[in-house]
Amino acid sequence: QLQASGGGLVQPGGSLRLSCAASGSIFSNNAMGWYRQAPGKQRELVARITSIGSANYADSVKGRFTIFRDNAKNTVYLQMNSLKPEDTAVYYCNYYPPRMDYWGKGTQVTVSS
Question: How confident is the model at residue 25 (pLDDT cuts 50, 70, 90)?
Answer without folding.
Answer: low
